[in-house]
Amino acid sequence: MPKFKFLEDIAIADAAFEAYGNSLEELFESCALATFEVMVETKGVKQEQKEEIRIKDLNLDDLLFDFISELIYLKDARKIFFSKFDLNINKNKEYKLSGTLWGEKIDYTKHKIGQDVKAITYHLLEVKKIEDGWKAQVILDT
Amino acid sequence: MQTKKIEDYIWEIPVTEKEGMRVPARIIASEKIMKEMDQGVYNQITNVACLPGIQKYAFCMPDGHWGYGFPIGGVAAFDLKEGVISPGGIGFDINCGVRSVRTNLTLEEVKPKLNELMDALFRLVPAGVGSTGFVKLNTNRFKELMVEGVDWCIKNGYGWEEDGERIEQGGRIPGANPEKVSQKAISRGVDQLGTLGSGNHYLELQVAQTDRVFHPEAAKIFGIDRPNQIFVMIHCGSRGFGHQIATDYLRVFTEAMRKYNLRVLDKELACAPFNSPEGQDYYGAMLCAANSAFANRQVILHQVREAFSQVFHKDPKDLGMHIVYDVAHNIAKLEEHLVNGERKKVLVHRKGATRSFGPGHPEVPEFYRQIGQPVIVGGSMETSSYLLVGTQKAMEMTMGSTLHGAGRTMSRHAAKKKVKGYELLKNMEERGIIVKAVSMPGLAEEAGIAYKNISEVVEAVDRAGISRKVIELKPIGNIKG
Asked: Which residues pair with B405 in a beta bridge?
């Protein structure tokens, strides 16, 4: 289950959250769901549209930055809210993320709309290993 | 951090306060605003003061608050040879800005039709996440628009001939280079022309407060000529197109920093020498977004004129719907300023700050030249907005810059916990402000309590002399994404 909580006192203008996962994949899924939770009540978003995703980077901060950026891009370019993420992350020389995103075409008559997310920022961005898994801190520009 | 008072409303953080500061930082504020300023501002503005090639000072305006890289309200000018360009000094929403439009209508004429007018505006100006506009573009047409900006709109029937000269730099900044824009940015923005977006963006109906005129000559030149006159304010930017360009180049610059051996104190301050291939590419792409933002506000105005025309059964020209002015408040621009007694071309970054050119400046349109460039300051949806003019003192003191809005004091999440969208809506209606919002939680996040007192921040720039108050505008209707 994706786990995250929004933070109040870290970024005055925008949306900040902390996310957790037992594995890196779960952590990234938590971050993805938190990002869409800013835009829409994700529990009301069906999983009938599908997109494949593939990203590689040398470090985890950049991998998370590029992953969330890709989701924000797809939201505008395909007009889809995503609510389920099946991801795979491997590390050899670099980190490779691949996977499937599931969601539904944006529909104002059905979805409970929140704020648009313009971008993920590097401001206080952090991905770290904790005792029982992984934790990330993310600030979005909304 | 130690600050010293230079004169009333001007405070300085000396270079000794942080290792690596190349110039002092200066904050424009009253004592009260200074006391309440969040600590992030001090840290971020002194980080900016460390950037290579910075000229004179790193400035923060009284509406300043914690941002990413630069604080919101940050201004910094850079040498063209030794200096840098930084997406973090412009913001993700490139050329987020404000346009103010006058009308011949009065509150008495609009009030009986206010609901109908708000419905028409809400229908004709798409707002909110994922919304699309009515102008059908393809890649080639979009690339034309990136270069031509507002001229493209006028050519295609979305504006009047006179509109261009009433916009900062004619709504068409030279130097835009569509070849430096990614295919992703194009596909993200191609169907969003004429959309408001969300967050703090809005379309507002306002009443000019004739008992709150501070500069009668300028008010007259702005076209304020009757009591309770209705104004329209449009606040938005370059939408997904600009956001993607900023995201793309933030990554390019992260790599470029290694190449040019640049070190910054915050990853969001990633930058490249202005005079480098990466710096020039971003500058060319950023101006594409800037021109498309001017065009976005232009197409929205076209729709606003259409809505007024439908409701009042009159041609928008007969309703006197002239643009007062349009300003960019997230941008970097090539400008000439006085540095060490000499006129010098520099790259001025303004992030949540507005150009404030004084009387006589050649870039101010002729009909405003005697009073200075109009400055538009949008308040929160519950409070007033202001029109001001630029001053000579801004030219001398702040690289021709001033504030942009009220400035947040509370995070969106905190505001949402304090205020419920529906309650706010009802409460505002009782006070005579009709609100139409796509998102109820989004509305709560923009409550007036989340912002500084607009009158106080405007007073600070007026007293500091970097712009001069002209008139206060009070909201009666607000559309939010």
From this structure: B378
Answer yes or no: are the C-beta atoms of B351 and B85 closer than 8 Å. no
Give the residue on B whose Cα is nearest the Cα of A74.
Answer: B188
Are the beta carbons of A121 and B197 separated by less than 8 Å? no
Q: Is the pLDDT of residue B132 over 70?
A: yes
Q: Which of A8, A106, A114 is closest, CB to CB, to B414?
A: A8
B83 interface with A at CB cutoff 8 Å? no
Helix (H) / strand (E) containing B108: helix B107-110
**B416 has a chain A CB within 8 A of its CB:** no
Give the strand pairing for B467-480 and B434-437: parallel
The token duo for B74 is 């940050």
CATH of the domain at B163: 3.90.1860.10
Task: Tell me the residue range of the domain where B297 lies.
Answer: 4-409+451-480
CB B306 within 8 A of CB B317: no
Q: Which of B207, B277, B6, B230 is nearest to B105 (CA)?
A: B230
pLDDT tens-digit series, residues A55-83: 999 999 999 999 999 999 999 999 999 99
Q: What is the pLDDT, as a whole number, of residue B458?
A: 98
The answer to whether residue B423 sits within a structural domain is no
The rounded mean pLDDT for chain B is 96
Q: Which residues of chain A are within 8 Å of residue B72 when distances are taken between CB atoms?
A: 13
pLDDT digits (tens, 9 = 90+) for B42-98: 999 999 999 999 999 999 999 999 999 999 999 999 999 999 999 999 999 999 999
User: Could you tell me the CA-to-CA distances from B423 to B57, B246, B361 in Å, in that order?
Assistant: 44, 36, 47
Joined together, the tokens standing for residue B442 give: 């989004």
B420 is a domain residue: no
DSSP 3-state of B256: helix
Complex prediction ipTM:
0.95
pTM beyond 0.95 = yes
Return d(Cα B137, Cα B134) in angstroms, integer. 9
Question: Which helix (H) or strand (E) covers residue B457, if one does?
Answer: helix B454-464
A109 at B interface, C-beta within 8 A:
no
Helix axes B277-312, B139-148, angle to 10 degrees: 90
Tally of domains within chain B: 1
By the CB < 8 Å criterion, does B410 face chain A? yes
Tens of pLDDT along B310-359? 999 999 999 999 999 999 999 999 999 999 999 999 999 999 999 999 99
| Residue B152 forms part of a structural domain | yes
